[in-house]
Amino acid sequence: MFCPKCGFDLEDEKGLKFCPQCGGVLSREQEEKPAEKRSRKGFSNRGRIIAMAAAGILAVGGLYVVTHAKCRLVIKNNEFFVREGIFEKKQEMTGSIVVPEGVTSIGNEVFAWCSSLSGIELPSGVTSIGDSAFLNCSSLSSIELPSGVTSIERSAFAGCSSLSSIELPFGITSIGFCAFYSCSSLRSIELPSSVTSIGDGAFAWCSSLSSIELPSGVTSIGDGAFEGCSSLSSIGLPSGVTSIEGSAFEGCSSLSIIELPFGITSIEYSAFKGCSNLRSIELPSGVTSIGEEAFAWCSSLSSIELPSGVTNIGEGAFSGCSSLSSVTLPAHLVDQLANAGIPSSCQIITY
Questions:
Q1: Cα separation of 229 and 181, whole Å?
Q2: Residue 41 pLDDT > 60
Q3: Pick the residue with more confidence: 91 or 214?
Q4: Closest CA to 292 of 246, 261, 244, 344
């Protein structure tokens, strides 16, 4: 049997979905006579070539990657790419694997749902890790990223519930959407000084994360970035951050103190909702808006002073703040208190 696209001799191989030579999709019935028969010996790096391993061992350039699943690797223009959907029987992949030198890109969802994968060694040439590349690798406990990686894409390590530590190389500039979402064993992480952006939900529900230091260059912290980080007791915000986005620290029940930088102008919806251990917070003078339920259910918050520049207090901003005994605010905001959820026993001080 031959590949109708390149004429590659498939011999007695059955059940292949892709041609090992050109990567063409194979149908159940193929032409018995090739248009142009090509040699099967070795691999070439001309054009687009896919190496496949049905027996669990992938050989590329004399190197071997031991796996427990079918896999494929694309070579194009002398570059190697681990492609999307590389493993067909992900539940059978166990233990650790080594990706060979020459691989420069880990594609989208390549190792997603490899729930028994406990370790992986990436070659030094890798510069890109795709969306959901290691999604729900629940047994993966650690991984070292090569120095050339510059970004952690969306959901790259989401659901890696055994991941307790990871070292991020200098040069990474952004932590993508839900990059470490629900990494429930992650206790600490050091962000390199090159990071400038923390995406939406980047560390959400990392319930063991107790502390994190944000580099001075960070200017953006996305919605829900630290939502559900119930062990997070303190965090320093860089001076370049100008707003606390929606649900950024919602459910951080161990957070007792946080210092907001001078440049903050808005506290968005549910930003500190459910921070039940937050006792006090000083709002910078530049704050103009407090979103809906921004401090709702901060049951330990005893007092707060709103700056003179605040023009809007969102509905339920202080609902469930049962310990709130005094609120100091400019006189023009008194009319907005009715919907703010402030306890009836709370003393209102105007200026």
A1: 10
A2: no
A3: 214
A4: 246
Question: What is the distance between the alpha carbons of residues 38 and 341, in angstroms, rounded to a whole number?
Answer: 76
- In this structure, are residues 230 and 253 in contact, taking their beta carbons and an 8 Å threshold? yes
With tokens 């992949």, the residue in question is 93
Which candidate, 153, 162, 157, places its Cα nearest to that of 134? 157
Both structure tokens of 93:
């992949």
290, 317 contact by CB (below 8 A): yes
How many CB atoms neighbour CB 93 within 10 A? 23
Top-confidence residue, 72 or 105: 105
CB 149: neighbour CB atoms within 10 A? 19
Number of neighbours of residue 167 by Cβ within 10 angstroms: 11
Measure the CA–CA gap between 246 and 223, rounded to whole angstroms: 5
**pLDDT tens-digit readout, 266-276:** 999 999 999 99
Q: What does the block give as tokens for 173?
A: 């500039």
Question: Per-residue pLDDT tens for 206-220?
Answer: 999 998 989 999 999
Tens of pLDDT, residues 247-291: 999 999 999 989 999 999 999 999 999 999 999 999 999 999 999
pLDDT at 321: 97
CA-nearest of 109, 111, 108 to 121 is 111
Secondary structure (3-state) at 152? strand
Pairing status of strand 243-244 against strand 266-267? parallel
- Do 91 and 115 touch, CB atoms closer than 8 A? yes
Do 247 and 273 touch, CB atoms closer than 8 A?
Answer: yes
Tokens representing 46?
A: 């001309």
| pLDDT tens, position by position, 48-89 | 333 333 333 343 333 334 343 344 444 444 444 454 444 444
Distance CA 174, CA 196 (A): 6
